[in-house]
Specification:
The complex is a heterodimer of chains A (313) and B (364). Chain A has 313 residues and is of the alpha/beta class. In chain A, 36% of the residues lie in helices and 29% in strands. In chain A, helix 3 crosses helix 4 and helix 3 packs parallel to helix 5. By secondary structure, chain B is α/β, with parallel strands linked by helices. Chain B folds into 2 domains: 111 residues, abc type-2 transporter like fold (3-Layer(aba) Sandwich), CATH 3.40.1710.10; 192 residues, no CATH class. A 4-stranded mixed beta sheet of chain B has the order 2-1-3-4, with helices on both faces. In chain B, strand 1, helix 3 and strand 2 form a beta-alpha-beta unit. The longest helix of chain B is centred in the middle third of the chain and has 31 residues. Chain B is elongated. Classes of the chains: A alpha/beta (313), B alpha/beta (364). Chains A and B meet through helix 2 and helix 3 of A and helix 1 and helix 12 of B.
Chain lengths: 313, 364
């Protein structure tokens, strides 16, 4: 299987800010590839370089076999792009927006009619097709944007935080659509900061401060996590947290409901014993148990810990 | 074929958005209608019935005849007869009279010597009055006394000053240019910037639409709007001020279309160099005032300093004012004015090319 996107040493500076730092990527075709990362981690900048919208400061990115910068026009014919902010025209109706996008992509009148009708049906836009896009709700806009991005049946879809302003039900429906598209042969690259969405991706790159910190299939990432995860249940969570903080073996602590997820140095053979030892006599605990890592743990380990290392260095 | 299709897609999108924007659409019709009414009535270079004070120190039949001639020009109305120099000065100072005429006591002798026998005193703070004084001073009676008195039935003078409609006739065709210049530059100055501000540009430039298609597609609807405005102004000018169209209407439209294209291209260029609509409008305004003041619309072109004339050459309005006055008032043809037509065409080509080159399908 060939790669849909290949990036090597991709770097972008904005003045003194290094937004994307020597990123290497191999996005396989016909899969959903996720970019997970906090705001400002370089997700949008990387996607924009793939669209030829920004010129890399160094390195290169090849999209569908073409250089994203020098052959941007060829790439754009084969690419569907959904911007982070809704970027269709608020003062055009749903149908007019779709029709305009068909025309700029050079579809014939017959194809235009067919595609617009098909997308309106497929994305349940029937009842709003005469309404101005500016009057749609978040979920409806997002369906319209995806419908518009797929009109010319692109091989590759780049979706920049498509679900950030959408309710959970619409998010679930949206992901169903993405899986349909992949089943029909599309490749999708989607950026997100939702763990549940990241978990749905075939492969995932976690970005932090412009760098890819870990990369792989979500399950594999959880298995390969560079720490042991110990779950602590106790009466006084804040107290436990205070006691654990600063202990050399403890890498990070995150509260999940009434439990604490404690990341412990991987080199320790029995991490739960270590936690017990720390808390003994100082905090009344209910249970201490070793659990398998979630993607959240992977994310914390990859971003927070690397951040600490970077600060320490 | 696909080139045209994409360009037309942009043009029809622009038209749709424009028609949906009721305020802008209202301005398309409202601005020219309001301005022509305003300018047509208010901008009046004709000077008539100025209140005059006369100090006749000669008190001869010739002096009375001179005063009569001046009054007959209808430029001035003899409102005051002063008996002394003091009274004369006070009348002017109080502003009861805008213009004063002093006839010196030795009028006959001075006329025979060819010396100045008559003073016209005007308020220098009002620029147009000074022109009037110059005009009056050039009256034949005042220069050539003996013969003048017979010729001085002032027919020639009356024609020059008394043609009531002259200003409207001069102003209305040039107003076509001025109004188009204002509306067209503003319309397109916002064109690209608006897409940027509303967040549509990022998507638009990720489509295969080319820079040329985008730019021409943006211009096309406004050329039609410009021609609608031209029609409106000329029709109102004809209805309100009886401005005739001596030349060919087809050539008026051809000339106007060329000028519209030139100003739109200027607006588009502004749109590509600015970051916000607010900046774009400021730059647009910056180009308007010189256009209005230096194009020969207000001040005669030949009377301007050399440097101002050079700058005026860079303004499309300068050339269009000549073209439209030529066609509408003198019945000239476009091919009689190849220089102006070529300059407008060149301006359009340079600005459009500059816009296309300035605009990149990138965000950096």
């Amino acid at each position: 299987m060939t790669n849909a996107i290949t990036a090597r040493g991709l770097t972008r500076r904005f003045g003194s800010v290094l937004a994307v730092d020597r990123v290497d990527l191999d996005v396989p075709a016909q899969q959903i590839y996720g970019f997970l990362g906090p705001n400002g981690s370089g997700k949008s900048t990387t996607i924009r370089m793939m669209c030829g919208l920004l010129k890399p400061s160094a390195g290169s990115v090849t999209v569908l076999g073409h250089d994203a910068l020098t052959e941007a026009e060829t790439v754009r014919m084969k690419l569907g792009y959904m911007t982070q902010k809704f970027s269709l025209w608020d003062d055009l109706s749903v149908r007019e927006n779709l029709d305009f996008m068909c025309r700029v992509f050079g579809l014939t009148a017959t194809m235009r009619r067919e595609r617009v009708a098909a997308r309106i049906k497929e994305y349940q836009l029937d009842e709003f097709c005469g309404r101005l896009a500016g009057t749609l709700s978040g979920g409806q806009r997002q369906r319209l944007a995806l419908a518009a991005a797929t009109l010319h049946e692109p091989q590759l879809l780049l979706l920049d935080e498509p679900t950030s302003a959408v309710d959970p039900q619409s998010r679930r429906d949206f992901w169903e659509k993405l899986f349909d598209l992949v089943a029909r042969g599309s490749t999708i690259l989607v950026s997100t900061h939702y763990m549940d969405e990241a978990e749905r991706c075939h492969r995932l790159a976690i970005l932090d401060h412009g760098r890819v910190v870990v990369e792989g299939a979500p399950k594999q990432l959880a298995r390969d996590i560079d720490a042991s995860v110990v779950e602590v249940e106790c009466v006084d969570l804040p107290a436990a947290r205070r006691v654990l903080t600063g202990e050399p073996a403890v890498l990070s602590i995150a509260q999940l409901g009434s439990r604490l997820h404690v990341l412990i140095e991987r080199s320790l053979a029995e991490p739960e014993r270590e936690v017990e030892r720390i808390l003994r006599g100082r905090c009344e605990t209910v249970t201490i148990e070793r659990v398998t890592a979630t993607l959240e743990d992977v994310f914390v380990a990859a971003t927070a810990l690397r951040g600490d290392e970077a600060r320490a260095a | 074929m696909k080139w045209l299709q994409r360009m037309l897609a942009v043009a029809s999108k622009e038209t749709r958005q424009l028609l949906r924007d009721r305020v802008t659409f209202g301005l398309i019709v409202g601005i020219p209608a309001m301005q022509i009414a305003l300018f047509g009535y208010a901008i009046n270079f004709d000077v008539r019935d100025l209140d005059a004070v006369v100090l006749d120190q000669a008190r001869s039949s010739l002096s009375r005849q001179l005063v009569g001639d001046l009054a007959a020009t209808q430029v001035m109305r003899i409102a005051w007869q002063a008996d002394s120099a003091d009274e004369f000065d006070q009348t002017l100072q109080r502003g009861d009279a805008n213009i004063g005429v002093v006839i010196l006591p030795d009028l006959e002798r001075r006329l025979a010597d060819g010396a100045a026998a008559l003073q016209i005193v005007v308020d220098g703070s009002q620029p147009s009055l000074e022109n009037v004084a110059q005009g009056l001073a050039a009256m034949p009676i005042l220069r050539r006394p003996g013969a003048a008195l017979q010729d001085a039935t002032s027919v020639a003078v009356r024609v020059e000053y008394n043609a009531e409609k002259r200003t409207a006739v001069q102003v209305v065709p040039a107003l076509v240019g001025t109004i188009l210049n204002i509306t067209m530059v503003i319309f397109t100055a916002g064109a690209i910037v608006r897409e940027r501000e509303r967040g549509n540009l990022e998507l638009l430039i990720t489509t295969p639409v080319s820079r040329g298609q985008l730019m021409t597609g943006k211009l096309l609807p406004y050329i039609v709007i410009g021609l609608i405005q031209t029609t409106l102004i000329l029709a109102l000018g004809h209805a309100l001020f009886s401005v005739p169209i001596v030349g060919s209407l087809a050539e008026v439209y051809a000339g106007a279309a060329l000028f519209i294209a030139a100003t739109l291209a200027l607006g588009l260029f502004i749109s590509t160099v600015t970051k916000t609509q607010f900046q774009a409008f400021q730059v647009a305004f910056m180009t308007m005032l010189p256009s209005i003041l230096m194009s020969g619309f207000v001040f005669p072109f030949d009377g301007m300093p050399r440097v101002a004339q050079w700058i005026a050459q860079l303004l499309p309005l300068t050339h269009f004012v000549e073209i439209i006055r030529g066609i509408v008032l003198r019945g000239a043809h476009l091919w009689d004015m190849p220089e102006q037509v070529a300059k407008l065409g060149l301006f359009f080509a340079v600005m459009l090319t500059a816009s296309v080159l300035r605009f990149h399908k990138r965000l950096d």
